[in-house]
Structures are given as structure tokens and as C-alpha cells.
Amino acid sequence: MKAIRTKGLSKRYWFYKKEAGLKGSLKGLFRGEKVFVEAVRGIDLEVEVGERIGFIGPNGAGKTTSLKIFSGILYPTSGELEVLGYLPYKREKRFLSQITFLSGQRNQLFWDLPAKEYFNFCREVYHIPEGEFKKNLKRLVELAEIEDILNVPQRKLSFGQRKRCELVAGMLHDPKLIFLDEPTNALDLINARKVREFIKEKAGEGRSTILLTSHNMTDIENVCDRVVIINRGKIVYDGKIGDLYRLNGFKRKVRVVFNGVWDREGVEKLGRVLSFNGQEVFMEVASEEIKRVTTELITHFPIQDIKIEDPPLETIIESIYKKEAEELHLS
Amino acid sequence: MGYLKLLWLFIKVGLMRQMAYPPHFFMMIIGKVIRILLLFFFFQAIFLKVDRIGKWSFEQVLLLFATFHMVDFLMSITFQRNLVQSLPRWVQTGELDTRLLLPINHLFLVSFENIDLMDLFSFIPSLVFLGYVLLNLPITLSWLQGFLYIILVLNALIFLYAINLIVATLSFWTTQSYGIGRILDNLFKIGRYPLDIFEGFWRAIFIYFFPLVVIAQIPSQALLKILSLKSVFFAFMVSGVSLIIAIKFWRIGIKNYLSAST
User: For a Cys staple, A239 with which of A130, A179, A216, A243, CB 3.0–4.6 Å?
Assistant: First the structure.
């Protein structure tokens, strides 16, 4: 059984467009312009159990909508969909007991009450046996580092502390499928690190399938082994993170420190030299050439140290978005 | 999990929420008691001027009044705020998402998530008042009448639940249905008066199109021994049909739920 299987999955909705200002609002009362949005356009996706997938794309690309369809919050307009063997939009209790959806931007806890009360609520709702609940709670509370804030009303906590409490609440029932929608969004460095470590630890346990959306590539690189890039409701890339570097002729940077002084001409044949001072060279090499070039460097040069740097993931993804936009412009 | 257990959990959480702010808690109690006292004074003031409303005597109108407010408070303790205020807000802000992800009956959750026991401070005086009215009515009550009265009060609650749910689910299409909720709230209030005050068109409207008679008039008639079998059937049919329509509305509405952007 696949964790997620979709074929031609689409979501279309509409809203009334309103012009700015009081005049626009008045006009909108009677003659609003109906605008249709194709939020998700024919997504084909197969996710194996235990996979950790980064769902990335620019704002409005359809990432969150897709996740909401997968989790059963939204009905799809058309296409096939099966998640953990269920039709999510039927919202069966057995299905909902096996998933969790954590949003970085939406509060899930009882606002006026301490997190502990919400955890107890989760225990009842998910039918978690007492012993298992206590064990899970202890482990998750330690992992999220929220021991000292368990009895503090949520309204008194910082945004980051609340997010960490929500992570704990969402994992208490040991979900098989975890949807994380921008979990580190708007968090300060310390809280973002703690949340990232929490997710990484959960991912490391390997029991759950994880779908993570984030604009922060550190989140993705830390947790995911596969990336799905979505733009304007369509999947534009689906593969391993490592394979992304080989896309679109991306160059990798190689820094070499020689034993002694060396001749520039010898290394110029291997790639574009960005800087050279006799003892150290910094050069750019095509991804598909990297294996040959490093072998040659090791074989023919007295090397003290060699380091290969990948271009930042953000740069690669940005270039994919740009390429998409150009193609759309041309068509 | 048994839904009664869940209901008990909602009651506990609701009380904890109210008690999270002690000054507010005590002010709420005072407010609720003042509210019911003002209602009594208002009614007494009317009867200083008139001694009958239509065919209804002062004592009979008091029974109608007590029944109406008992139903009204029961409604506000349980589902009214959830449906009329919270559900449209959750639809508008997308907060419904988190509720739809919980493995429990979603209609039950959105209907009873916030149980407001503070209204007990209005409900209990209205119950005491009902007892007082019954003692002063020139009739002897049978167990059957009492049983029928309770059944018809529950039936009235089902009718009100259905109407509130229909209005609340409109927010799936209109995003905001608070205005309609307010209109409805004011319309319901008419149900505390004998419908004899209306004639012709309006009387027909409030009996057949928007059957306010179901809320307090028909249950009260059970105690006053002026209830016909036809009225009993009518009351059950109205509630049953309304509930079926309301559940249909909910199912279609939830299918059209669009959440909100994050």
C-alpha cells in the first residue's frame, strides 16, 4: 500500500474579485467579478510508506491546498486520490486517527488553558491508552523542551513555545502520516532550531511518512530525502534532493589546497578557475563532470585538502521557478 | 469514545475557560441573574396594563414565557453560540481545519465544543419560575402531561438546533452568516408571546412557514390540556423535517468548505 497515491488530482474554486476602496466595495455588493482559481492542476504523485518529502514552491503554488486535500480538509474537484488506503475527504475516524496536520500559522490549542489540558483532550479523542499516553508525552515533552511551560495558559506563551506544544499534541497518537505546513514559519532562530530538531528526530524514527512544506531549505535538507516542487498547481520536479544539483547544468564549486606551489595552467584544463594563488585553487565544475575532475585532481596533483560545495538549494529552486515563468511567458 | 464522555469533557473545558479569568467569572454570574430578573420585570410590566393576550390568561402567558426562556437558555448553554457565532467564524478564518482533522463526529464537535454552563445561572431561575407558575395554575397535572411536555420541549430544541444549523452552514457559501443569525435570534423571541397576537398572513407565517408555535406554545398547551393530537404530530414533523434538511445542508456545506489561506 502506498502512503499517498494521486492521479490527475485537481482543485478549482472561485471567489468574487473586489476593487479597492469604498466605491469598489459598493460595486462589489452587486456586480462582483467571479474569478476561478485552479489551485491544483492534475497532480500525479506516489508516496511510499516511510518516505520524507519536501513539498516546495512559491507562495500560492498549491502546496498547502494539496496537503489539505491529502488530509481530507478539502474536497478535490476531480482526479483520483487515496491516502493510507482511504479516501481522505470521507473523513473516516480510522483515517483521521492515523494522520496529523500541523500548520505553522494556525493555533490548535485551547487558548485560555495550559497545553496539558489540550494533551488530555487529545488522549480522549484519539483513544490513546493511559500507559502509552504517559510514555509518549514524556518523550515528546523532553524532545520539544516544554517541561517548564506545561501548566502555563497558552495565551501567556510565546509564538515559538506554542508551536512546540502543538508539535507535541500532534504526535501524541503516533501518526503514520505527518503533514507539516511551514512549521518554522515566523519562528525566531532558537525556536526554529528546536522545532527542526524535533522534526528531524521524529523523521529519524522512520515510522512515519512525512510531507513537509517550507520556504526554509534548511528544514527540507534536514528532514527530506525526496523533493516535490510545485508551481502554479502543477508538479515541476519530483526526485531526490541530490539529483536537483544535476539539474539545469548547475555548477559545483571545488576548493583545492595543494602541497606546495602549483601551476595554474594544469588546473585550468579541469574547470573554470574562479581564484588561484599557487597553493589554493577555487574552481567551478559542471555537476556531471565532478567525479572525473576530482579523480584527476587526486591522481595528478599533490593534494592536502579538497572540498566540494553545492550551490544553495534556494538558488536551484529559484531557477526552476524562473524557467517555469519564462516558459509560460513564451507560450 | 462515548459522546457523553466527550460532552462532559467539553463542559469541564468550558468551565475551566470561564474560570481562567476570575473577575469575568463573577461578573458573568451577576450578568446572567440580572438578565433573567429584567425579563420577569418586563413581563410583569406588560400585565400591569392588560390582563389577557388573545385567548391566553395572565397565568397561561407566564407558563408560555417560562417555557420559552427555559428552551432559550438550554439552547444557549448547548449549541446556539457554537452554531451561530463560532462555526461561521471558523469557516471564515479557516479554524475549522483543525476540527475537521479530529477523529470524532464533526457535526457533534462544532455543535457542542463550547458548552457554556454560565447560562445555568439564568436557566435555574427560569426553572424555579416555571415551578412557581405551575403551582399557581388552576389545573391538576398528570404524569402523562409532564412527560409530553418534556418530550415537546426536547422536540423544540431539535427544531431550534436544525434552524440554527441551517443558518450556520450558509457561511460555507456566504463566508459570513452572522447577520442572518441575528435576524433569526430576533424572530425566535416572538415565540415567547401567544401567537394570538398575530392575525391573517403573519399568523400563518409563524405557524406554518416559520413555525414558532413549536418552541413554547405547543409544549405549554400540553400542560394546559388544550393540546390537540394534530399539534403534536405537527410539532414532531416540523422538527424531523427541519433536522433532515439541516443535516443535508451541513453535508453539502462541508463539501464546499474552502478553508482560508495561511
Answer: A243
**pLDDT over threshold 80, residue B42:** no
**Do A99 and B101 count as a contact with CB atoms less than 8 A apart?**
yes
DSSP state of A310: P
pLDDT surpasses 90 at A34: no
A and B: number of Cβ contacts within 8 A: 73
What is the DSSP annotation of A245-275?
TTGGG-EEEEEEEESS---HHHHHTTSEEEE
* Per-residue confidence (pLDDT) for residue A331, from 0 to 100: 62
Q: Is A281 helix (H, G, I), strand (E, B) or coil?
A: strand
Which grid coordinates belong to B121?
445561572
Interface test with B, best of A12, A69, A74 (most B CBs within 10 A): A74
DSSP string, chain B: --HHHHHHHHHHHHHHHHHTSHHHHHHHHHHHHHHHHHHHHHHHHHHHH-SEETTEEHHHHHHHHHHHHHHHHHHHHTTHIIIIIIHHHHHHHTTHHHHHTSSS-HHHHHHHSS--GGGHHHHHHHHHHHHHHHHHSSSPPPHHHHHHHHHHHHHHHHHHHHHHHHHHHTHHHHS--HHHHHHHHHHHHGGGS-GGG--HHHHHIIIIIS-GGGTTHHHHHHHTT---HHHHHHHHHHHHHHHHHHHHHHHHHHHT------
What is the per-residue pLDDT across A177-207, written as a single tens digit (0 to 9) for each? 999 999 888 788 888 888 888 888 888 887 8
Give the ipTM: 0.82
Mutate to test the interface with A, among B101, B105, B118, B173 (most CBs of A within 10 A): B101
Instruction: Return the residue of B nearest to A185 by Cα.
Output: B262
State whether CATH 3.40.50.300 applies to domain A4-244: yes
Tell which of B16, B98, B118, B256 to mutate to test the A interface (max A CBs under 10 Å): B98
**Poorest-confidence range of A28-42, B78-92, B195-209?**
B195-209
- CATH class of this structure's domain A251-310: alpha beta
Average pLDDT of chain A, as a whole number: 87
Contact A96 B101 (CB under 8 A): yes
- Chain A residues with CB-CB distance to B89 below 8 A: none
pTM: 0.84
**Top mean-pLDDT range of A137-146, A190-199, A254-263:** A137-146
**Rounded to a whole number, what is the distance in Å from the CA of A168 to chain B's nearest CA?**
15
What are the boundaries of each domain within chain A?
Answer: 4-244, 251-310
Closest residue, chain A, to B100 (C-alpha): A73
pLDDT at A328 over 80: no
